[in-house]
Amino acid sequence: MSKHLPDSPPYLFQSRHGIWYARIVVPVDLRSSIGKRELRKSLATRDRFEAARKSWLVLSQLRCVADGDTQGTTETVDTQACTQEAPRPTKVSAPTITTQSNNSHSKLPRLSQVVEEFCQEKSKQGAWSPHSEQVNRQTYKDMIALLGDIGLEKFTLAKALEYKRHFSSKADLAVSTVNKRLTRVSALLQWASLHYGINNPMVGLTIKVSAKVKASKARDALSETKIKQLFREIPSTTEHKMPYRAWLPRLAAYTGARLGELAQLYIDDFTVIDGYPCIHIRATHPDQSIKTATSERVIPIHPKLIAMGFLQFVDKQQASGHERLFPELRKISTRGYSHQVSKWFYTFKPKLGWGERDTLHGIRHAVATQLKHKEFSSDMVAGLLGHSHGSITFDRYGKEYKIENMLKLVKALEWD
C-alpha cells in the first residue's frame, strides 16, 4: 500500500516502505496502447525534500512516455516497472535526461503565476490577515518589478543576491525591514520548491543582527509612571464625541488586550460568566478578526474599570441602538478599527513629551512585565494576553481557564 501525505502534491506519493515515487496520469486516449492508467517511478529516497528535487526530471520523462513520445529521454521508462515498487531502492538512480528534456525547465511558470498560486493557497488556508496579504502581494509585486517576470527556473542565487543587495543598499531601510522582505520572498520560493521541484536560493540570506541591536530597536514597554501620566492627560470617561480616546487606553491597561481586539468590540461581546461580567475576545462578526486561534479568550472586567463606570457605558451604547462599542471608529481597509486610534495617538503623544518608541502597544508590554514581576505562571499570562503557550497540550486543551483564576490575574494589575 502507499500513502499520500496531507501536504504532498498529487504527483508524489510514498510507499508503505517509505520510498517516494513520482507518478503521472496517462491520457485517456493512450491508456489502451500503454496499458496503464498512470505511470510511476521510484525516486530512490525516503527524504521528502530530495524527492521533490528529483521529481521534476522524472516527471518530465514520465510525461514523454504518457504522451507516447520516448524520443525526449535517453532511456525508455519501463511501464511495467513504473507501477511496482523497486525491491532495492538504493540501486535505482534518478533518470538522466537529454538536452531536449532539460528544456522542460522552460515550462516552469513565471513568477507572476507562482505568486498568484501561493497567495491563493494562503488565502484559502486563512493563514494571512487582509493586511498581511496586502503586504505580501506588494512585496512580490516589487520583486517582479525589480527582477522581471522571469521563469521560475531563472530565479537563481545570482537573482536572489541581486534582490537582497537592492534593498540592503538603501540607507533609509532598517535591517528589520529588509529582512522582512527577504523572508517573504524566501517563503514564496520554499513553497515553489515543494510544488515545482526547484531549489530555494533565498535560504540563509537574511541579515544577521546582534541581540544588542535588536534590543535597541524594540518597542519599549511603557513604565508605570507613563501609564499614570497617560491616564491624567487623556479625556475623562465622560467623553461623549470620541469615547474611544477615554476608554481604549484604560481598557488596554486593565485587560492586556490588543488595541485591535478592543477597538472592534460589539455589544454582544460582553457576557456574564460564573456571575462575573467579562469581555469575550473573538471574531464572530464579518468585520472582526483575531490574530491567531489562541487569541480567542474571555477576560474578566477589572474592578477599577467597573468603578470608572465602564459597565454603565456599555449599557448606554446598547440603549442608544449601537451594535458596536465604539461606533465612531471606522474600519480602514486592511488596517482594521485600530488604525484610526493609532493616528489619533500619534498626534496626541507629543503633548505628553513621549518619544517615537512610546506607543499604545507599549501598554500591553507593560501588562506582561507587571504580571511577570508578580510571578504569575507564564501559561496563565499567555492565556490572558492571547499568546500561544508554546505547548501543544496547553494550546489545544488549555484555552479555557476558570474565571475566578483569571480574575485574580486581572486584579493584580495596578496603575494607581
UniProtKB/TrEMBL annotation:
Ranges of biased composition (kind: Polar residues): 93-106
InterPro entries the record matches: CB, DNA_brk_join_enz, DUF6538, Integrase-like_cat_sf, Integrase_catalytic, Tyrosine_recombinase_XerCD
Annotated keywords: DNA integration, DNA recombination, DNA-binding
Top-rank lineage group of the source organism: Bacteria
Region ranges (Disordered): 76-106
Signal peptide: none
Residue intervals of the Tyr recombinase domain: 217-414
UniProt keyword annotation of Zinc present: no
One Gene Ontology molecular-function label: DNA binding
BP GO terms, sorted: DNA integration; DNA recombination
Residue ranges of every copy of the Core-binding (CB) domain listed in the record: 109-193
One Pfam family it belongs to: Phage_integrase
Family: Belongs to the 'phage' integrase family.
Designated name of the protein: Site-specific integrase
